[in-house]
């Protein structure tokens, strides 16, 4: 790191002399930077926990692997002098004190849980990037007026317990704690039971903490930044989402001896609904997506027509009208498809958030940090959902993105470069510092 507060000027005669971020410049273009090797080493160390089968990770929420990752993260935070708080959803808050005890903290975080065939960087880059910011401030002996809280949100992925961003949704007051506790994984285990089992049930009321601001650093999980050859995504918005869980009821019957005209075929209804979802999303281009990632057949036997089929339709758009129009169309068309086949159909919205506009002041700080550091950058709308989407409901929030190879994510082959990882963390350092307010002396 190179840093020096040459010509530090106080912004006002407050108790602690405050220093402008751009005074912390060793020389133009040589602004403060994080330790890229240390960040990368930490990413690789965390990636050893909950390994996948193809080079990525399977560290699903509240599994033993998640517990192991949490302990490693806590060890590193202890070494960095942070104090831990855990809330009743298991989210970890690791605090670096500020000089002003009355100043609300700046929260910086993401998630350590992964998809079953997840990559090494989705979420993890944001948590360990935030830790690297703190490690760098410690190295430089920099104090801030506002505390900084490195945050590991529980159950961001929603892979094991739907919906995604569950803990941050409870924190934002959008999802009731009891509903969250009752969410079941495919084996019927509940979130509440599993949180107890791995020993990460905290004592803090969820959402009791108040934030001065929230930053989240994340891989793009899409192809735009790499294709445009930009190092930094200045995230202005995040697209909205519906997760519609359909339960189709057919009649279990022999796949061989049951005549075609006697079948109540829930599997056929499902396939027609999948086709329709694709058509609806394509009819709302540009700026709409729709698909299905998870299906449960029951009894799921090769020679039995399914009696029950459960699947979740995932539709998203940055445009509120498109998003709601897609939902209405899909639910109406699915009912018609099922009626024509004599299949029962029920649907439950198990996940939702409207399109999000991030805080313009914080977005501006991200952009000016990228400019100050000499990194190429562009505005971008997040295609994936993030805890920042719920944090934005209770505090000024924004995100920073780095490219990922081929735009690939939620795949064990997810990949980024060390340079990309470091550049985004440098921007995070500057944007967080500007918001947490450096204090001299
Ligand atoms: O679903 C999402 O967008 C996020 O990856 N949980
Ligand atoms: Mn993520
Ligand atoms: Mn993800």
Shape designation: globular
Structural class: alpha+beta
- Count of helix runs: 12
Strand content: 15-25%
Termini distance? 19 Å
The overall average pLDDT, rounded, is 94
Tell me the major beta sheet.
9 strands, mixed
Note poorly predicted spans.
Answer: 1-18, 25-29
N-to-C order of helices and strands: HHEEEHEEHHHEHEEEHEEEHEEHEHEHE
How much is the radius of gyration in Å?
23 Å
Helix content estimate:
25-40%
Bound molecules: (2S)-amino(hydroxy)ethanoic acid, manganese (II) ion
Total beta strand runs: 17
Q: How are the SSEs ordered, and which strands pair?
A:
Elements: H1 36-47, H2 64-79, E1 83-86, E2 92-96, E3 106-110, H3 124-140, E4 143-144, E5 148-152, H4 166-171, H5 177-182, H6 191-197, E6 213-219, H7 224-227, E7 232-238, E8 240-249, E9 253-254, H8 266-283, E10 289-298, E11 304-305, E12 308-317, H9 320-341, E13 344-353, E14 356-357, H10 360-373, E15 377-382, H11 387-394, E16 397-402, H12 418-436, E17 438-439
Parallel strand pairs: 3-5, 3-6, 6-16, 7-15
Antiparallel strand pairs: 1-2, 2-5, 4-17, 7-14, 7-16, 8-12, 8-13, 9-11, 10-12
Helix pairs in contact: 1-3, 1-12, 3-12, 8-9, 10-12
Bound molecules: (2S)-amino(hydroxy)ethanoic acid and manganese (II) ion (MN) (2 copies).
């Amino acid at each position: 790191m190179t840093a020096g507060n040459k010509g530090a000027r106080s912004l006002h005669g407050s108790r602690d002399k405050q220093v402008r971020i751009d005074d912390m410049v060793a020389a133009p273009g040589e602004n403060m930077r994080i330790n890229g090797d240390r960040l990368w080493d930490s990413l690789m160390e965390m990636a050893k926990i909950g390994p996948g089968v193809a080079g990525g990770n399977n560290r699903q929420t509240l599994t033993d692997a998640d517990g192991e990752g949490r302990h490693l993260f806590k060890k590193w935070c202890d070494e960095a002098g942070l104090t831990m708080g855990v809330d009743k959803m298991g989210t970890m808050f690791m605090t670096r004190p500020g000089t002003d005890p009355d100043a609300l903290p700046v929260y910086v975080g993401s998630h350590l849980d992964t998809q079953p065939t997840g990559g090494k960087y989705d979420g993890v880059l944001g948590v360990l990037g935030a830790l690297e910011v703190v490690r760098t401030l410690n190295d430089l002996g920099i104090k801030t007026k506002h505390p900084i809280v490195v945050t590991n949100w529980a159950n961001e992925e929603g892979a094991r317990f739907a919906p995604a961003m569950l803990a941050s949704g409870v924190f934002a007051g959008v999802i009731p704690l009891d509903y969250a506790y009752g969410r079941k994984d495919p084996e019927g285990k509940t979130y509440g039971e599993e949180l107890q089992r791995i020993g990460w049930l905290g004592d803090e009321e969820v959402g009791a903490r108040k934030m001065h601001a929230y930053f989240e650093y994340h891989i793009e999980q899409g192809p735009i930044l790499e294709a445009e050859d930009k190092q930094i995504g200045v995230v202005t918005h995040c697209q909205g989402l519906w997760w519609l869980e359909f339960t189709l009821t057919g009649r279990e019957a022999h796949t061989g001896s049951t005549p075609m005209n006697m079948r109540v075929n829930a599997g056929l209804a499902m396939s027609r609904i999948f086709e329709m979802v694709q058509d609806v999303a394509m009819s709302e281009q540009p700026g709409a997506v729709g698909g299905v990632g998870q299906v449960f057949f029951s009894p799921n036997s090769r020679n039995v027509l399914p009696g029950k089929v459960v699947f979740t339709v995932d539709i998203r758009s940055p445009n509120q009208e498109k998003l709601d129009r897609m939902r209405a169309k899909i639910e109406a068309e699915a009912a018609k498809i099922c009626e024509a086949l004599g299949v029962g159909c029920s649907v439950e919205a198990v996940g939702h958030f409207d399109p999000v506009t991030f805080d313009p002041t914080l977005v501006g700080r991200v952009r000016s940090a990228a400019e100050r550091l000499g990194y190429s950058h562009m505005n971008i709308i997040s295609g994936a959902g993030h805890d920042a989407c719920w944090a934005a409901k209770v505090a000024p929030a924004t995100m920073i993105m780095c490219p990922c190879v081929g735009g690939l994510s939620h795949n064990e082959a997810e990949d980024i470069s060390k340079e990309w990882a470091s550049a985004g963390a440098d921007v995070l350092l500057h944007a967080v510092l500007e918001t947490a307010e450096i204090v001299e002396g």
